[in-house]
Every structure is written in structure tokens, then in C-alpha cells.
């Protein structure tokens, strides 16, 4: 489908932030399961988990190597370690698919086949086709090229960079999932729907680890909208992806104030950004 892209704005984003209701508890708000990070990239797990908690979620369950779990807990002692019931999974940030251990392959395989919504990033993008529930994948240009390599030989990095909305849509149509394509403008596409753009992120956001933060924001939004996704995933998944990119861009703007930022700065400014959005 090629209708005019929609530019996501505050009014649209406000509809997709779950505010705790009277009587909610940590489970009814939504639990996010996270399998991210690795010995070479422990920071990706810390960044994603910190961002998820600061976006607002009932609980995060983290599954990973003990050293990475230690780093996550040192930053966020609220996190619960180990597998348990979750409303959504965030997987893949800070991982290398080529170096996946059998244990990790088993954990990731179980997660994507559980039927709950999955946010799939970086080193788990090869598992998109195995998922049995709704998926939003979060590639940058090189990652989208790799994900489409077996599907469309025209999908080069240069081609994707020269027309990101077309390739986000092509990725969504070929893989049958929601695609959030990262870049200076973020493009969200879903099979059969008009694309959504998220614009005006500061260029300072182009720094290591901000994509890992975005994964955490999106994971939290997906985990706190299980009911909406079950009712109408085709509406909810792209809307939640666009809202995550919008919050991420606005938190980056707030953190930056015109100057440089780190990925953790963006995560730290998420609560103020969300409070301002909710007014
Ligand atoms: N703190 C952390 O733990 C971080 C972990 N990260 C993780 O790192 C993994 C790899 O992500 P990438 O996006 O880098 O993966 P990509 O494989 O897409 O990018 C690597 C590419 O960048 C090229 N490259 C490397 N250094 C370069 C340089 N100095 N100048 C120009 N090109 C250069 C390489 O040749 C390669 O083609 C992912 O799992 C990601 O989640 C990143 O998010 C960065 C932060
Ligand atoms: N020039 C830019 N202007 C604004 N935002 C950008 C720019 N380049 C990248 N971004 C954003 O920064 C983030 C980088 O994510 P990613 O490439 O996954 O990095 P990392 O793997 O280091 O976390 C994405 O949210 C992307 O949309």
C-alpha cells in the first residue's frame, strides 16, 4: 500500500502511553522479558533495561549471562533475573547472531515461539521469521539489508539509504512484520498500512547505544499494551513503534538542549518527557 506517510506527533503519541489505572499492580501493568547484551556488549543490556523501566512498565525480567546480569542489576536493582511469565519480549540488542551459544539459541527460540509480542533488534533479527506472535523489528540500514538479503537482491545498503520509506515498507511486506527503520528520520511500516515518519530527532542522537535505548522504550510500550495488541495488532504495533521513536527523539532533544548527549542521558530524560506529554 502506498498512501501518504503520516508524521507522528504529540497528539498521536499521547494515545499510546499507558497510564497506571487505580488498582493496577506490577503484573497488570505489564511485564517485559529482556534477552539482550553479551560478554562483548554488556552495556546494550544495561541501556535497554534502564530505558524500559524509565518508560514505565510493571516489571522487567532479564535473562542473560551472569556477568551481564550483574551489570544490569548494578544499574537497576528493580530488575528480576530469570525466565517467567511476560507480556512481551525485547531481544537481540548487543548480540552477534554469528556467535550465538546453544543456550542462548534455546532461550531466544523459546521467547519468539511463545506467541507474545516481540521487539526484535540487532543480533536476533535472523529470528523474525520464527516468531509466532506479533513482531516489530528495529533495524538500521545495514541490519535491514542483512535481513532482506535472502528475499530481495536489490536490497543494498545504498538503495535503502537512498529511499528509507520504500525499503521499510518493502521489509514489512516481505517479512510480514512491523518494521521500525532507524536513521535521521525513523520510518515505521506495517504490511498493508501507510508508513509513519518520526522526524526532528537531534543529530546528537547518532551516538553508540541510543538504538539500545530505543529498544527498551519500545519494549516497555509493547508490554504495557498487551490488550490493545491482542485486539488489533495491525493498528497497535506500528502506533507503539512510532510512539517509541517519538519519545526517544523528544527525550534526546530535552537531554541535549543543543549540545552532545550520551545514550544514558536519553534514558534518564524519558520520565520528564513522558510527564510533559501527558500534561
Ligand atoms: N554499549 C554497547 O553495548 C553497544 C552495543 N552495540 C551493539 O553492537 C552490535 C553491533 O552494532 P553495529 O550497529 O555496530 O553493527 P553493524 O554490523 O551494522 O555495523 C558494523 C559495521 O560498521 C563498520 N565500522 C566499524 N567501525 C567503523 C568505523 N570506525 N568507521 C566506519 N565504519 C565502521 C564495520 O565495518 C561494519 O560494516 C549490536 O548488537 C548493537 O546492539 C551498539 O548498540 C553500540 C553500543
Ligand atoms: N543523523 C541522525 N539524526 C537523528 N537521529 C539519528 C541519526 N542517526 C541515527 N539516529 C538515531 O540514533 C539511533 C541509533 O541506533 P543504532 O543505529 O541502533 O545505534 P546503536 O546500535 O549504537 O545503539 C536510532 O534511534 C536512530 O534513529
Automatic annotation (TrEMBL):
Class of this enzyme: lyase
Source organism of the structure: Orlajensenia flava
GO MF entry, a single one: ADP-dependent NAD(P)H-hydrate dehydratase activity
Family that this chain belongs to: Belongs to the NnrD/CARKD family.
PROSITE patterns recorded: YJEF_C_3
Binding-site residues for (6S)-NADPHX, renumbered to this chain: 44, 94, 140, 212
EC number: 4.2.1.136
Gene designation: nnrD
Pfam families named among the record's database cross-references: Carb_kinase
InterPro entries, A to Z: CARKD, Ribokinase-like
One GO BP annotation of this record: nicotinamide nucleotide metabolic process
Protein name: ADP-dependent (S)-NAD(P)H-hydrate dehydratase
Sites where the protein binds AMP: 182-186, 211
The protein's role, per its UniProt record: Catalyzes the dehydration of the S-form of NAD(P)HX at the expense of ADP, which is converted to AMP. Together with NAD(P)HX epimerase, which catalyzes the epimerization of the S- and R-forms, the enzyme allows the repair of both epimers of NAD(P)HX, a damaged form of NAD(P)H that is a result of enzymatic or heat-dependent hydration.
Keywords: ATP-binding, Lyase, NAD, NADP, Nucleotide-binding
Domain YjeF C-terminal: 9-277
SUPFAM superfamilies registered for this protein in UniProt: Ribokinase-like (SSF53613)
Catalysed reactions listed for this entry: (6S)-NADHX + ADP = AMP + phosphate + NADH + H(+); (6S)-NADPHX + ADP = AMP + phosphate + NADPH + H(+)
Assembly notes: Homotetramer.
Cofactor(s) the protein needs: Mg(2+)
Amino acid at each position: 500500500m502506498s498512501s501518504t506517510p503520516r508524521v507522528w506527533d504529540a497528539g498521536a503519541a499521547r494515545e499510546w502511553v499507558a497510564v497506571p489505572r487505580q488498582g493496577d499492580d506490577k503484573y497488570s501493568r505489564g511485564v517485559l522479558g529482556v534477552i539482550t547484551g553479551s560478554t562483548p556488549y554488556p552495556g546494550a543490556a544495561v541501556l535497554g533495561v534502564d530505558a524500559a523501566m524509565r518508560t514505565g512498565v510493571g516489571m522487567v525480567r532479564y535473562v542473560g549471562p551472569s556477568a551481564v546480569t550483574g551489570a544490569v542489576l548494578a544499574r537497576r536493582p528493580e530488575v528480576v533475573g530469570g525466565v517467567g511469565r511476560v507480556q512481551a519480549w525485547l531481544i537481540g540488542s548487543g548480540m552477534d547472531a554469528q556467535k550465538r551459544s546453544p543456550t542462548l539459541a534455546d532461550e531466544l527460540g523459546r521467547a519468539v515461539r511463545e506467541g507474545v509480542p516481540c521487539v526484535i533488534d540487532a543480533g536476533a533479527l535472523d529470528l523474525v521469521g520464527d516468531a509466532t506472535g506479533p513482531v516489530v523489528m528495529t533495524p538500521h540500514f545495514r541490519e535491514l539489508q542483512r535481513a532482506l538479503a535472502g528475499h530481495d537482491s536489490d536490497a543494498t545498503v545504498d538503495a535503502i539509504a537512498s529511499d528509507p520509506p520504500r525499503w521499510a515498507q518493502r521489509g514489512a511486506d516481505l517479512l510480514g512484520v512491523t518494521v521500525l527503520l532507524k536513521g535521521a528520520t525513523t520510518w515505521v511500516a506495517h504490511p498493508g498500512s501507510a508508513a509513519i515518519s518520526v522526524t526532528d530527532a537531534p543529530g546528537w542522537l547518532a551516538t553508540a547505544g541510543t538504538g539500545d535505548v530505543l529498544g527498551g522504550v519500545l519494549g516497555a510500550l509493547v508490554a504495557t499494551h498487551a490488550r490493545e495488541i491482542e485486539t488489533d495488532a495491525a493498528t497497535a504495533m506500528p502506533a507503539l513503534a512510532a510512539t517509541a521513536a517519538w519519545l526517544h527523539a523528544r527525550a534526546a532533544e530535552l537531554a541535549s538542549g543543543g549540545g552532545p548527549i550520551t545514550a544514558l542521558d536519553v534514558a534518564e530524560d524519558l520520565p520528564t518527557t513522558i510527564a510533559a506529554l501527558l500534561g
